[in-house]
Amino acid sequence: MRKAILLAALLTLDAAAQAQLPGLRRRAPVPAQPVLQGIDALRAEFAAQSGGTTVYFGAENVGLTVPARTVLTAQAAWLRRHPEVVVRVEGYGDSGDTRDHALAVGARRAEEARSYLVLMGVPAAQLSVTSWGKERPGLGRAVTVLVR
Amino acid sequence: MKRLIPIVLLGFATAAGAQSAMPAVTVIAVPPLTSPDSGDRGNEMLALGWQVTQLIETDLRQTAELMPLRPNRDDYYSYPEVTAPTFSKWRSAGAKALVTGFVQSRSDGRLTVGCYVYDVHKGRELARKGFIVGSGDWRRAAHKCSGLAYTAITGAPGMFDTKIAYVAESGVGDGRMRRIAVMDSDGYNHRYVTDGGAMVLTPDLAPKGSQIAFVSFADGKPNVRLLDLESGRERPLMSSDAISFAPRFSPDGSRIAFSMMTGPNSDIYMVGSGGGPAQRLTTSPGVDTGPSFSPDGSRIVFESDRGGSQQLYVMNADGSGQRRISFGGGWYGAPEWSPDGEWIAFTRRGQDGRRIGIVKSDGTGERTLTNGPGDEGASWAASSRELIFQRIGAGGRSTLYRVTLDGSEPRQMTIPQDGSDPDWSGVLD
To answer: Distance from B331 to chain A by nearest Cα, in Å?
Structure first.
């Protein structure tokens, strides 16, 4: 029983992780590429076909840059082809900001990205927004569009 | 059972005024509290009285204005001396004031803690008050007695019988757990009031400490929620699922000001703390947030980037008369009006980090209180002479500090884990 669970878990591990488990690797040959199914496969396809899931803003800025519009336009095209997929637009504030202001800036960035996606023809019902403010360090100034 | 009546002698008003004009520290004697009880019960009360005495000393030692003489347990103090102190004895000990009293057991199992404050030089009483508490609540009676002495000598409310709420943080990265914790202002009775299942931010205690408004990510986006500390019941402030944050109770606890997103616009709204429709107070495009009421509830200070950068503004509580009050350069946020109405504390962001400062509500008298670079989110003590704030240190860990307005160094508070977003309550009933 225990062995069966380990084998199933291995199917989702990447090559580096398998190298740490040589004893198991012999018994369970694994594909070179991880097999993605369901939501993970959709996320990977979304990221690959729209040039990324993250768009960056200038410091203290909530306006969309040209590279950001390019990514969002590609995201919109993908979302129009997948009307069954719901996404959440997550905005981030600047880490040096005060807490409430960072929440508001994150929400504004998320809303800018959401509005642009709607402008590009994505039905509003497919989209929701949230803000992480400065609470997720390392992702400042970004809006990530996730397939949910 | 007789309850002692609080008395503040009128003659003291001038002395208090002179005191606050001078930065001099008042030396105060704190002899052991005595007891009118006899026998075993008397010994028990004397032992409790000694604990109360030590806590009063600890409370007063934390202030910038009072310096307690170290109490001596062998310094036997008779019950008649409570109401008729030997002033010459305390004068020769160097004290200018005296706080003393007694602990008496009651037939219902509770305690009466009698508290008396004297001006030793003038040889007269400044204040007296009796506190009836359950036997497990002697700490509160001691804090009340400390507050009576502090107020009688400085003229400012004592901040000893107050609570502090903050966000306790543990773990690392995205798995970092954040729970709202509430403790007495001296760190005792520490408890967690949210379970850590959802990320939480910015707790704000209702004036009497019975409720907490805070921001929760339980629904995947920031929303203001209200938690009743007695019943443990929690509910969203608004039924709408718009992003909302930055909640702040009015001084009487009847209203809550907060920020809500409508499209790309963050505006300030007000709603009754019991529910009802929200009233929109600001309409400018951009980020209006961080509301805080004046002590009479008639005005609100907030931050806005309507002028191009984040600055402080004051408006009437109905949204009228909005005007900017910060002009010192840099960005100003997280304003907090002092309980005495004199000051507005803020967090100022510059190229070299964040610092805590204060400014009068008309924009004059700005002072910087801390050196940063990772300071944020100041909240006033009930005395209006001290602030609690969070500081992110060199290692990236967040801790709580207290700083007084007299220019002394901030002092780190002892809490079990990392902490952020501190909020200091008013004096409890």
So the answer is: 9
